[in-house]
Specification:
This protein is mainly β. Helix content is 0%, strand content 45%. It is built from no helices and five strands. The chain has a three-stranded antiparallel β-sheet, with no helix packed on it. The chain has a two-stranded antiparallel sheet with strand order 3-4. It starts with 12 loop residues before the first strand and ends with a strand.
Amino acid sequence: MRARATGFVTVNGQIGLRSNDQKWEVALWGRNIFNEHYNVVAFNTPIQQASGTPSVTSSISVFPGDPASYGLNLTLHE
């Protein structure tokens, strides 16, 4: 038995400003800005199944993707 993964989209973005003399710049950024919940990988974990149950009912373990994150970068140039 195979599990099917559904499609998903993560949206990243960045917007910034730079001074006319290019001595500083500031940027606001976000990753997974709509906080899409998704799994990076899923795998069968038969060792964690209840004793005496067939392997087709074994557990599935997952590694979730990164949650939404946001930041602000300030860069100064000499």
